[in-house]
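step: validate -> pass
step: tokenize input -> pass
step: predict -> running
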Amino acid sequence: VQLQASGGGLVQAGGSLRLSCAASGRTFSTYYMAWFRQAPGKEREFVGGITWTGGRTYYGESVKGRFAISKENAENTVYLQMDSLKPEDTAVYYCAATKVPITTTPARYEYWGQGTQVTVSS
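step: predict -> pass
step: emit ->
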């Protein structure tokens, strides 16, 4: 099972980025997919999640109204659209998968992507 995250980069404050997470190795229809982020010296933070079946979305308070998660079932890919980016959004972003209902606890996730760096300049 592999999760491949991509799309990170350097962007100015107020700009946008779209991250992708391509899943392979099994059928993810029974999984919940999520994005986390981790800034230097900080704990891993729940950004948002989506149910693979039904597409219900959940977001952390710090990104509500600015970030949006979507999925493309045919390509086994989950996206994180990030708008109105702020310097405090700077972190390594990870995608993750779990069979339990969406949770903000990183330890409950079985599979992780390798992370992609997002840097927002002021």
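step: describe -> The chain has a mean pLDDT of 93.
step: cleanup -> pass
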